[in-house]
Amino acid sequence: MSTPFYLRIALDKPLNQTFDYEPLANSRMHDYQIGMRVNVPFGQRSEVGLILDIHNQPDIAPHKIKPIKERIDDSPVLSSELMKLGLWLHEYYHQPVGECLFTLLPVLLRKGQTAKATQEKHYCLEHLDWQKVERAPRQKAFLEWLQKQNHKVSHKQALDAGFTPSIIGQLIDKQLVSELWQDNFNALCGDSVEQALALNKEQEQALKGISEKNGFNPVLLEGVTGSGKTEVYLQAISSAVTQRKQVLVLIPEIGLTPQTVQRFQQRFNADILLLHSGLNDQQRLNAWLQASRHKNEKAQIIIGTRSAVFTEMPNLDFIIVDEEHDASYKQQEGIRYHGRDIAVIRAAKRNIPIILGSATPSLDSLHNALVKKYQHIRLTQRAGDASPANLEIYDIRKQSVEHGIADELLQHIEETLEQGDQALVFINRRGFAPTLYCPDCGWISECKRCDARMTLHQKPAHLHCHHCDHKQTLPHQCPNCLSTRIQAMGAGTERLETHLEYRFRRHKVIRIDRDSTQGKDAMEQLLQPVHNGEPCILVGTQMLAKGHHFPKVNLVIMLNVDSGFFSADFRAMEKTAQLILQVAGRAGRESHGGRAIIQTEFADHPLLHLLSEENYHALALALLEERKLHSLPPYAHQALVRADSPNPKEAEQYLHRLLQNIKPLTENGISFIGPLPSPMELRAGRFRSQLWIRSHQRSRLQNFLKNIEPLLYQQKGFNKVRWSLDVDPSDH
Ligand code: ADP
Ligand code: ZN
Ligand code: ZN
């Protein structure tokens, strides 16, 4: 008899522990490996678990240990590299180990589906015999096309290219084409039709800095919009591509445009895999499996949003994080990880290079560069012929501004259109107006479930709370005093669109916001006239700020960006400046003399002047000084415990109790702020409160969090309270 052994299993549950199970009867130790999934009995149910360890020292009495129900995988779904990354997540973010590990997996694998891709019918070229298709031009065309597609296509590709099943069927009968069922892996094919550009001096220096060191070499590439960062990325990864390795390119949530993908496609003869939120669960699993089974036959470039950082990539050799400052890299629920930070950790553990690129780096990364943790490389000039748009401040105090935009600025738009160019009006508010109000009694359209106002929409007409998604029909009278004079206050994208359409009747006005871009490809269709280059006006939210190249946009007008200047969030100014620069960067990308104008009521704001007269870098240094003075990140480290409850005051009481419990464990160098009501205390019907835990030293904060972990997970007596822990929170 061999000695008994046990499996230590992690479950995808908010429980801060692991569980021991017995193996299946008659199975042997080498049937199991760390990183495989099993089904286990848990309470009345069956749950998917991951094998964390195989051992012979159970935590509980052996007779109490139940056997697993089934082994799901024949080989691990998580490599030891990713298992370690999952454990690192657990250590750093102090979330349950099971949840951390399961977060690395595609949803279908979390649910226990076998790690197999769906299969699709493919057609292969068997035999070329032109005589057999002499009198069948469509069949001949298919053969020719198949030849060009490297002799194999999927059924869907064939239909998309306009061939019918009957044409293909006849070729199969003639034994010229064969059928094959294969994993539905569908990477885009790169075709390397485009040559690398000759780099300018700054780019050349940058490339040198990036390639001068082997192994882990984190680089912050700070380059103004249009300075040719993308060209540097492309040349930096080219040796990895030649060696048929894998490259991971992280991009922001809404930054993936066809233009971005095209640049990689045209440069490299590599497979390009996209991993973004538009994929369904099965497509995501297929892409994940395709990356995890990379065989070094052809290089693979994986372009994806935040969670793509967890893709299994056995031959990963280079990581790029584009727009590294972007807020969408931070996960805001569940395991609240930062995709950029994980990317750096992953590069360090694999000992490979990583570039963090941005025109407006986050203060965190800039700080890391200034203290020499990262190599700091700057591109200060636009590449090619373009010159950057000047940032101008337009003072609207003492002016009557109808429909949200000053008359003089409308004249600028008119001149731009007359020159045959395009104009972009940016306003970060969708809907018609942010508020409906009654001039007779002062009533305003407040949401009953949030400390917020309901936005007035006209297309179609309704009131909508953007915080809890509550919708309501539009009242015709004031609900308070029955006055019929209720009216819109302020302006959003819809109102501007209407106003600009009225004012510029001969030109197209194109509105881009979340409401106008529902549905697949809606955005690209709307943008067609812009890409065609006809004079027109773009009106939109920050959806316009990322990724797009608008060569003919020569004037950018920004409205209401100043709302961030006086926010309670200490990061507001940083975020506002990044947004301003990003939007301004849409102007004059390929021409001279573009203008970017900020319409503001706070034209004297010193930081705004710094931004317009100097640049983002100067502003960022000033903001860092301020952070240092006030002991704020990156000069201090923070964790935030958030709590909420449907009952007023309950979340706050919960945090008070928690603070009482954890205070005795407090060591030197740990401080607390709160509990305090959250900035929007009532949201979606729940009252929210928060407690900050801070330290100047990351290791102290981490130690403290480790020590209080059991208390966090054990606090009882508040059934209605939901709580979460956010390490390095990026907002309140
Ligand atoms: P960024 O990513 O920094 O915003 P891009 O890489 O998109 O900048 O470059 C902006 C434009 O300049 C693109 O049209 C690109 O083709 C062009 N460009 C980049 N590098 C060079 C170069 N060395 N010579 C000529 N044109 C360049
Ligand atoms: Zn009223
Ligand atoms: Zn609401």
From TrEMBL:
Keywords: ATP-binding, DNA replication, DNA-binding, Helicase, Hydrolase, Isomerase, Metal-binding, Nucleotide-binding, Primosome, Zinc. The keyword Magnesium does not apply. SMART domains: DEXDc, HELICc. Coiled coil: none annotated. Residues 210-379 form the Helicase ATP-binding domain. It catalyses: Couples ATP hydrolysis with the unwinding of duplex DNA by translocating in the 3'-5' direction; ATP + H2O = ADP + phosphate + H(+). GO terms for cellular component: primosome complex. One of its GO terms (biological process) is DNA recombination. One of its GO terms (molecular function) is zinc ion binding. Zn(2+) 2 binds at C447, C450, C465, C468. Binds 2 zinc ions per subunit. Pfam families: DEAD, Helicase_C, PriA_3primeBD, PriA_C, Zn_ribbon_PriA. Its EC number is 5.6.2.4. CDD domains: DEXHc_priA (cd17929). The keyword Hydrolase applies. Residues 473-627 form the Helicase C-terminal domain. Its cofactor is Zn(2+). Component of the replication restart primosome. Initiates the restart of stalled replication forks, which reloads the replicative helicase on sites other than the origin of replication. Recognizes and binds to abandoned replication forks and remodels them to uncover a helicase loading site. Promotes assembly of the primosome at these replication forks. NCBIfam families: priA, PRK05580.1-4. Belongs to the helicase family. PriA subfamily. This is Replication restart protein PriA. The gene is priA.
